[in-house]
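quick one, 842 residues, struct below
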Amino acid sequence: MSASTQESSQDWIESHITPRERLNSAMKILSKDYEPLKHQLSLSWSSICKSSKLYYMKKAREAIHLVLSIIAPGQESILLNAIQPRTEEVDSTTKCIVDAYNHAANSRTQTQILSLIVNNFTKTELQKMMPGVTIARIDAARKHAMVTGPGNIINAPKIYRMKLTKPKLAHFIDFVLNPVCSSVVGFGQTVLKLSSNEKLKIPKVVRNMIHARIISSYQSYCLESGFHSFSKATLYRILKVCSASKQKALRGLDNTSAAGMEAVDNLTKVVAKLETFGLSQNDSNRLKDILLLVNQFLKFEYKLHLKEEDVCADHCTSFALSDPTDSKFAALCDHSHVQLCERCALVDSCVPVIQKEFIRLEVPNPLSDEIEYELENAGKNIMEWKMHLLRTVHQDVARTSVLKDLESNQGLLILDWGMKFLPFTYRETQSDFFGKKGISWHFSCLVIRSPSDPGQLELFCFVHILEDGTQGWFSVANILVHLLHTLKREKPFLDHLFLKSDNAACYHCTSLITFIQQNNANFPIRVAEYNFSEAQSGKDLCDSKTGCCRLHILKHADEGHDIMNCINMKTALESHGGVKGTKACIVSIDQQMEPKTRTKIPGISSYNNFIFNDDGITVQKAYRIGTGMKIRLKDADLGLEKVAMIKVIQDFPRGEEHMSGAVSLHHHNEPAEEIAHGDDEQTVTSETVDSKFQQESTDQKRIGWALKHRKKATRFSEKVKDYLFKICEECDRTGKRPDSSSLSEELKKVTDKDGVKLFKKEEWLSSSQIKGYIASYLSKKCKSVIEPPPYKKQMFGDECCEDVCIDEDEKLAEIVSALDSHEYIDSMTGMIDDVFTSVNVE
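---
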């Protein structure tokens, strides 16, 4: 066959070879293992079955990889990705990043976001995706991705503008935490939000003064002492950060102060009544201004003016508390009292000034008796308030003086009963809520010099939880003996203790004083002094610790625990490491073993300071005023073996277990005594002060004007007793208890059928007198002593005291105390840091 014939034959064969055969032939040449394609796809892709789709996908993948293996052996996948066309559609993740870039707050954040995708696209593609992005921004993002990593955040350095300095801040906070400005209550809590958004629960702190008065007093103090402080705006900002409740009522149930403020209110009402009988508007406003000034002065300023020695007789506590009838209780001032305080003179003269206007006017007889009665009682109550404030400040000097002179082997022990703890369950039903019996617990706060730093003070608290026993002197004596042995075991360097407590009857009584003196030589630690605070003014460290412990128990209960008995309370107090510087134990005291004592100290209520010597007790009416009177006491029934019968159920943890370290106290000189107040708030001319009172202010006859005086007992008239008895019988029959305040007003206004008043002014009774009568009636009724038909007889003895002892009952003050923060006392340093961070502006 010729060549041309072969060539034409070959062309015919090639023209009749199908594309499938060509592919198979080519693939056979490239690889002998290639399995030929059986058939071509002639139908649409969407119409074929799943198995056919998988077959054609498999054959296409084999052919492509076979060709790529020839072109780029070992790099088939890389080459395939390189030749694949890019899709114009952006994936959802990139879309989210682009959206975040467009909504970023600043350029720094935009650069950080852009660094996540900047290396995945060209600059042109990035500018197309994100209109407005510049080449410089893309370069910055690529640099950020290379240096710090894609998306890594680099915070800009914070620049602080220092507006506060810590020494000045500490100076102001120390002033604010002074008891004159702030008080800690024994219950309740405050949520303090720090600058880090952390919420801290602390015992409730009550501001006794509004912010404006605190700042005004502080600036006056700084002006007097030459200290340059912050501006008013900054001080307001600091007080806002140091959040505290504002006092809306008097602290606790201080009856004397409440009666004084009520007297000022009554005098204001009297002035309003006098307006209807011809008192001019100018005179009325002048008298009301005087009363307002007297009220504000006694509430906020008077205590700040008092000093142990002062040339003003109203400010000199040594002069005011010296007994003119007994030199043992008097101090000789080495200065003359020639200065007159205009504000104090206003206090003395406010009632006589109103009385003078009252006499000048013609007031009808029925109403004139009521006004005379109000003026008389108001004058007495305002002076009692002033005397009470002076005694409060002076007795508090005992605590500050002991702390100032405290030696390394001495300690200050503060005693107080906490408000009874009512048991409760984690999930409490309504039936379980009623009829609870409170659990008594006693707090003892020990303040000593720090062994490592004698310049610092340390606080330890010991809690006695009573399973059995009452809050009487017998329980206090047993707790004291147990505590002295515990302290000697844990702190053997202690040799002497100074005791301090409020004026409650369980502390301030002959039995406890005699027991301490009689057994002092046998105690492991000797009791050197026992100082009592003024009645109803005994708020101290124990109240702060009560709030901390109560809060700790409530937190433990919130975790699902029941607090139903003493063991539950002790477990709660020791949970999570316990309250800092606090230990607890459970004791039982059998009241049946309480001895019946016969020893008496005549007039013990007038003695507030007791110094224990080897040969007796030196008593003082006021702290360190006079040499005191030496008394000797002996009672065979008060021996240590007859009193110390405490049963310890669970003792204090040994060593430093559950103690969490001592609380550090910072003792500062209180600035209150140095504060001087300007007269720019309100000016009252000296003409309003009678010359008579100016003379009396320098008269030595005023010595001892602030001492407690024994109140004269008075009789109730038969007519008054008959009237009150009938009311008590009617209330006893109906079950409704009479209101003493309403009855006091009723006695002034009640008339007979002819319209004549039943009772004269001399027969009118105060609310406290009526309250005492009702209490006596109920007490006699319970003891079945009342004889029928009794109301014509002198039921309650020949005499009925004008003021009942309820006014001096310290237990009432324990029930309500309207006054922690990192535990208050130990939080001074931490609080300064928190305020420093919160107030400084970035």
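The first strand starts at residue 182 and ends at 193.
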